[in-house]
Write a structure and sequence with these properties.
Elements lengths: L12 H45 L5 H13 L7 E11 L2 E12 L9 E10 L5
Antiparallel strand pairs: 1-2, 2-3
Helix pairs in contact: 1-2
């Protein structure tokens, strides 16, 4: 008795492999892209808050000047809709007058759209005194 084995055709298996691999790679790539975008926005807002605090710490300037400087720096790079509030405050750091600029913002989970993940950053600087 002779057994005849038929060979299954592999025609079309490359398409299935491509779809299965793409379903794994594309979300991973988009997740890394979103993480990079979040870090870019957070670092930009942090740098702007720090620069705004240093701007307000110069003699004869008020915390409101730091707020305005921070808004200007952020507005040139990040969409205004992502920034919830910018607040400049006079504070005391170890007995020294200082300025703190607090920025509250959010980052949407899908690119630049949708409800966001809220975060807060601060910038500090010791105020110049004329003594």
């Amino acid at each position: 008795m002779t057994v005849v084995r038929t060979r299954r055709s592999e025609c079309g298996s490359a398409v299935v492999d491509f779809v299965l691999v793409t379903m794994l790679v594309v979300p991973l790539f988009l997740g890394l892209l979103q993480l990079g975008l979040f870090l870019y926005v957070k670092n930009t807002v942090t740098a702007a808050a720090s620069e705004g605090a240093h701007h307000a710490a110069v003699m004869n300037r008020e915390p409101a000047d730091g707020e305005q400087r921070t808004r200007t720096l952020i507005g040139g790079v990040v969409r205004d809709e992502l920034i919830d509030s910018v607040e400049g405050q006079s504070v005391d750091v170890d007995g020294q007058p200082a300025v703190r600029v607090v920025v509250e913002a959010h980052m949407p989970p899908l690119g630049l759209w949708g409800p966001g993940l809220a975060f807060t950053v601060e910038g500090h600087a010791i105020k110049e005194t004329g003594r």
